[in-house]
Here is the input.
Amino acid sequence: MQVDYIVCPKKIENKLESIHHVTVRDARQVLIGKPRIRFAEKGYTAGNDVYVAFGQTFGGRYLSIFFVYKPDTKTAIIISARDMSKKEKKSYGRK
Here is the structure.
């Protein structure tokens, strides 16, 4: 999966910073790096499936980024981001 564009609505950006203490810059760093991406769930409408990217920021922080992927424009629309759980971090480290 190739991501050429990363979009984060202002409402989501505020939620990420206030609740999860993740900046959009952190989320972008994970997505432009070499994250491990997996399918999370089918979207409510066709073409709006949710994926999760597991990766590290340039500073070494481990994050899980949830996004909707639009294959026609290769755009990732961030819907949530948080620190990886211990289980996710352990699984990420094994691969």
